Each structure stands twice: as C-alpha cells, then as structure tokens.
Amino acid sequence: MKYLQALALLLMLFATAPSWAVEPDEMLSNPALEARARAISRELRCMVCQNESIDESQAPLAHDLRLLVRQRIMAGDSDQQVIDFLVSRYGEFILLRPPLSWNTVALWGAAPALLLLGAIMIVAVERRRRNAAQPATAQLSAAEQARLTEILNSETAP
Amino acid sequence: MIPELGHYALMLALGVALVQGTMPIVGTRTNDPLLMSMATPAALAQFAFVAIAFLALAECYVVSDFSVFNVYENSNTTMPLIYRLTSVWGNHEGSMMLWVSILVFFGALVALFGGNLPSALKANALAVQAWIAAAFELFILATSNPFLRIPNAPFEGRDLNPILQDPGLAFHPPMLYLGYVGFSITFSFAIAALLEGRIDAAWARWVRPWVLVAWMCLTLGIAGGSYWSYYELGWGGFWFWDPVENASLMPWLAGTALLHSALVMEKREALKVWTILLAILTFSLSLMGTFLVRSGVLTSVHAFATDPARGVFILAILVVFIGGALSLYAWRAPLLKQGGLFAPISREGALVFNNLFLVTACATVLIGTLYPLALAALTGEKISVGPPFFNSTFGPLFIALMIVMPFGPLMGWKRGDLLGAAQRLLAAAILSAVAAAAAFAITHRGPVLAPFGIGIAIFVMAGAVTDIVERTMVLRVPSRVALMRAVGLPRSAWGTAFAHFGLGVTLFGIVAVTAWSSERIAEVKPGGSLDIAHYRVTFDGVFNRTGSNYQDVVGRFTVLRGDELVGVMEPSRRNFPDRDMATTEAALMTRGVSQLYISIGDPNKDGSIPVRVYFKPQVLLIWLGAGFMFFGGALSLSDRRLRIGAPRPAKARQQKPKAALQAAE
Asked: What is the pLDDT at residue A137?
C-alpha cells in the first residue's frame, strides 16, 4: 500500500500535465553534455514533489529546472557551478544529497557513529560477562529441570 | 443492513478485545487457569467478529452499495469485480480494516496452533495482541469508520484511483501488511516474556516461525511493490528511497536482524535480552511506518488522511505502545539471565556482526527519513535527504554485510575457524574475482565500481552454494552418499542457503540494472525507429482501444534483433474519464532475465509520439532474488524443529522404517 498511495497521489497531482520526466524536446543534442545534465538532474530535488529528483519528476517546475540546468551547461558552467547557481536561487533544500555542515553533521555522522558505538558496546558487554564468569543457568523449577533433562537426553541420544 | 452489521461486529470485536486484554493477565497473576484459558476462545471470537466486519465491507463493494460513503468514494459499477474487491483496501479506512483483520488473524493462529506453548506465555501474548487490536479498532471506530452512510444514496460511485486499478493492488498491500502486522506476534511474545520475567531458548523456538512468516511476507510485499512501481511509473525505477518505502524497509531490516538473533538464542541461549529488544523495535518500526504514512506528518502529498485527529490518535497509540514496551523492557530486562558464552570468531560472533550492521543500516534509514522533519522543527531550516544520501550511507554498510555473510554459515558455534572458513570459500572468491574481471572486460561504460558489485554478488551466491557443498561433501564422497546427505540436511540449512543465494541474486540485478541500463528518449514519427542495446524498435502507429472504464491510446512497436522479428510491444496512455486522469501503461518484453521497456506520452499533432525505450539488463533478478529469499524462508519454516517444536531424535529416525513396517503389518 504505503508508497503506492504516494505514487498514486503524486501521479494524480500531475495527471493533467501531459509531460513525464525528461522529455525529448528538452534534451541536448550533444550526448556528453546531456549525460552531464542527467547526472546533475539526479542530484536535484523537484521542490514541489515529494522526494523526486527533477530527472524523474513530471511536474512543470521540474521541467523548468531541467531546462535551466541545460542552459547553464550550454553557457559553459562546470557541474559545480550549475549546482551552486541553483542553490543560490532555491537554497539547500534543492540538494538531494545534503552538504556537510553543522546542521547535517549528525545526519552524516550517524551511521559511522552508531557502528562504532555498537562495536564498543558489544566489546564492553562481552568483556564484562567474561569477567563475571559465573555459570549462567536459567532458574527452572525442579519439575521443569527434570523435564528439560528428559528432553535433552532424548535429543542427544545416539 | 449489511454495513450496520459490519459496524456492530467491529464494536463487538472491540468489546472482546478488552476482555481478552485483561482477564488472561489477571489469570496469570492470580495463577487462575480458567481466566488464562479465556485467551484462546476470545482470540477466536475476536477474529470471527473482525472477519464479519471485513466481509460486510467487502460485500458493500461487491454489490456497489453507494449509500456507504467509503464505497461511493472509491468504487464504481463499471469497474471489474476484482478491482471492486481490491478497492476495499485501496483507501484509508479500508486499509486500516485490512490491518486489523490481519492482526486478529495472526492472533487466531496463535490461539489455534499454540497448543504446545506454556499456558501463561500464551495467555499473556494473546492479551498483548488484544491491546493492539483494541487500540486500532478504537481508532477505526472513532476516526475512520468505513461504514458511514450517506442519507441520499448516489446512483454511481466515484472511481477507484486509476493507478490503483492494477493486479498489484490485489497482491501488494495484503502481503505487506501480513509482514508488518506479523511482527506484532513477536512483539506480543516479547512483552509476555517480560511480564513473566523469564525467557529461555524455547521462547525463541516458539517465536521463530512467526518471525519467519512475517519476514517472508514482508520480503514479497516489498518486492511486489517495487515491481509494481517499476512498470507503472513509466521510467522503470525500482526503488526511490521514498519515506513510505523506507517505512516498509525498516521493519524488514530489523526483522532480518531479529530472525538471526533469535537463531542464536534458540541454539545457544545467548543474546536473549537483545532479541527481546529487537522484537519490540521491529514492531515499533511497523507501527511508526503506519503512523508516518497515515498521519500525513511526513508530507501533505502522501497523506491519505489529512484529518489531524487521525494523526494524533495514531501518535497516541505509537507513544503508548512503544513507550510502554520500552519502559517495561528497561524495568524487566535486567532480571533476564544471560547465557551461552562464545568466542568472537564463531557463528554467534558472525550473527552479532550481522545484527550490528543490519541495525545500523536500519538506523541510517530511520535517521535519513526523519532528519529533515526534526531539523525543520528545531531550526526551521529545510533540507532534503534523498536517494544520493541513502545510496552513499546505506550502500557501504550493506556491502560490508554481504562480504561477511558467506562466512557465517561456515563457522562453528561457540568457537569458529576463520582460516578454515576462508579456505573453504577460496573457490567462491576465485569465481567472484573472475566474474568481476569479466564484467570489467565486457562492459566499457558505467561506474568503475560496478564490476566489484558483480564480484560481491557472485561471492554471496557462490558462498551459499559452498555451504551446501561442504555440508553434503558432494565432491569428496560418492554422489549417492552426497545425495543422501543432501536429503538428510535440516531444511533450515537449505533455507539459509536459498535465502542467502537470493540476496546475491538481488544484488546482481541491482548492480547490473543501475550500471548498464540503456535508454533512448525521443519523438518518433510512424515508421521511425530507435536502436537500443541489440534491438531496433520501430514505431508503427497509434490506435485506440476501449476497456471497461477507460480508453487506451496504444502505440504499436515492432522489435527486431538483427533481421529477426522478436515481437510487438504495445505501450499505452490510459485515460479514465470518470476521474479525468491518465496513467502510463508501459509495455515490457522479457528477454531472458533482462527486459525491454517502452512507455509513451500523449501523441503530438503531427503524428509523432514521445517515446522512452529502455533496455534493463538482468532487471528481473532483483525480484527473482526476493523469490529465492521467500522460498528459503518457507523451507526453513517447514523444518521439523519449527513445525513440531523439536528436532527429530536420532533414535526415532533409525527406528522409523521398522515402526512403519510393523504398522503396515
């Protein structure tokens, strides 16, 4: 269900627009430049859509942004210049890969930090248990213990 | 009358849930077997009442009773019966009904097949299950009543959202919910164990089948949804890191971790406290997914339900259950005894590694999904966290996991032999290096890292095969003996191998299609053609076709490979006049496990048509791998030790033929 509803609603919003994602008339005739445009497009968010890049989106805004990216490329901008230009116009919200900053340090650092923390915890717990070194037994009632012995014997018998 | 009956049955179900949620617990506290035994009939009655309510709603859809508001909103007499049925859950109210139905279905299964459970554990688990049911039944009755009537019934309903008029709707949501909600059982068992304050290896053995069932269904549900969006969206994307997708991926990751830690607990009595926590977290993530999607907190676009009352209600459910469960855990978990020491290099150690990486991957997805919300709430700053972020954080974690994965099954319990495992994986490693080199040689474009991805995928697949080869000793003993050994292997060993192999297959598909897809996007006039991969696609022209409640504008394409006619493809634009909407119906042609994919836009005035043609190499492997995983889960589920609750005693195995003979006499 979940994301289908999302797709459904997204498509519903743009159903009246005949366009869909990159259109033939938008594309640059130079394949190398077009490839660059596509790569940049995949990093940029269609700001009126939900989590869609302008490369995928069907919204009119995405269409305009795709044209804008290609205009900048034709004007001789480098990839970074194109992205900087769009950020200066629309803010960092447009970047699908948030740049590392004070605001996003926790976001980017989360995975390595958690991995490290988890590893440290595992080692610590393991060390503590090893030091405690007491035989671990479940507290079973006498009847349960008898039943358990019976089961274990019946299982391990050759 | 029928809708009122359904409504009434749902209220009765709520009543039963309240009884089921309290009496058995009182019973376990006072040691009253009569009160404890109430749980079983109550769970069955609960299921019966919810089933009546669900069937009543389905009946309203089948007979198109437009006096019911929900039916009027989402159905139409021109829709085929199958879509009238599936539209029962193609909307907010109905999908919540499906959610609760599956919840009480699992409860009834535990009641029916939980005969070998200790009575206190069963009573407590069913009681916890009833709390969840009660909360969601109350939610439906209070905020999302599907049986609401309209005073003057209209003659015709609105249509089901056209994009949902697809066979995918019959399969995907029930499967996904079976997975999501299936984890409620493990949650209930975990809470029951905490209430009792004791837990042992047998607990893991009872719970593992439920984890397996939920995990299998979730796997298929996610894969099904991915394939649906692949052919429905018109450009062949299969995963978008969309928040709603992430909401289904997170329980899958946590559930996969749970599946493995429960194994350690069952075999070695270790990781008990951790397994309980995972059981709680997995279902909490399911609940959170429900909340994120249902409440509209993530985005206004995704929200089915814009009514804030619903969001607040689910948030309350979320806080009570997750908060309550974690508090109980913090209070009771220290009482649980740990057991089973093991060396770092061992099967247990490998499974701990698995858990660490899966949980970190899950946390990464969670943080990535919620971070923009939190940041906006705290600082007012808006950022986007999209696919590039997830690919570069989730990707490395999963790759590390995949490299280590083949070692796990080859290690012994308690103390493993890393060098020995590495030696046995030598053939797999060589094969994967050859595959990576071949991929590097054959393809002369695409990302540099792609051949390494292929190498890892092959390593995972070959590693799974190695496990079976080692266990059957197929190359070292006569083939007849090896065959007998293969038959004698526990089914769970085959299950592991199949599921791990499947993950490799999926990775292969993802890498191939991501790196080496080709696409052509162009305006084509009738008679014009496009070349892609080894194929030439010629546009013959458009024609119209009328369906039951839609009109198609169909483009006809002839596909040639060299001079040989391969086939005809007919993608279309499908217009639904009732909703004034159009969908893109892509045409797919399967060649081996690769696909040719064509979708078209609306025809231009000059007769030309915008066309997107894709060649998706090995794309079907992505979903085929999920099929392998499902099959592996099913094999594992049919293992005697889970079916019967005990492995077959070796003695009985020897005596069995004799006993059978005697019986025959």
From this structure: 55
pLDDT (tens digit per residue) in B147-183 = 999 988 888 888 787 878 888 888 888 999 999 999 9
Tell me what ipTM this predicted complex has: 0.81
User: Which chain A residue's Cα is nearest to B225?
Assistant: A4
**With respect to CATH, is domain B1-165 assigned 1.20.120?**
yes
Which of B94, B85, B89 has the alpha carbon at shortest distance from B64?
A: B85
Q: List Cα–Cα distances, B124 to B46, B323, B394, in angstroms.
A: 16, 19, 37
For residue range A89-114, list pLDDT tens digits in order: 988 889 999 988 888 899 999 999 99
In this complex, is the C-beta atom of A87 within 8 Å of any C-beta atom belonging to chain B?
Answer: no
Mean pLDDT of B315-344: 86
The answer, for A91 touching chain B at a CB cutoff of 8 Å, is yes
* Chain A residue with minimum CA distance to B337: A138
Q: Do A11 and B248 touch (CB under 8 A)?
A: no
Q: What is the CA radius of gyration of chain A?
A: 29
Nearest residue in B to A141, CA atom: B198
* Residue spans per domain, chain B: 1-165, 168-412, 425-516, 518-616
Query: Is B384 in contact with A93 (Cβ distance < 8 A)?
Result: yes
Task: Walk along chain A (158 residues) and give the pLDDT tens digit of each residue.
Answer: 444 454 444 444 333 333 456 777 778 888 888 889 988 998 998 887 777 888 888 788 888 899 999 999 989 889 999 999 999 998 888 999 998 888 889 999 999 999 999 999 988 887 887 776 555 555 677 888 888 888 888 865 54
Radius of gyration of chain B from its Cα atoms, rounded to whole angstroms? 27
CATH of A26-94, one of 1.10.8.640, 1.10.10.10, 1.20.1530.20, 3.40.190.10: 1.10.8.640
The mean pLDDT value of chain B amounts to 88
Task: Dihedral sign for Cα B304, B309, B312, B315, please.
Answer: negative
pLDDT over 80 at B135, yes or no? yes
Distances (CA, A) of B636 to B272, B353, B495, B647: 21, 22, 5, 13
Residue B383: count other Cβ atoms within 10 Å of its Cβ: 24
Q: Which residues of B touch A4 (CB under 8 A)?
A: 163-164, 168-169, 172-173, 225, 228-229
> What residue in B sits closest to A113 (Cα-Cα)?
B360
Mutate to test the interface with A, among B95, B385, B597, B651 (most CBs of A within 10 A): B385
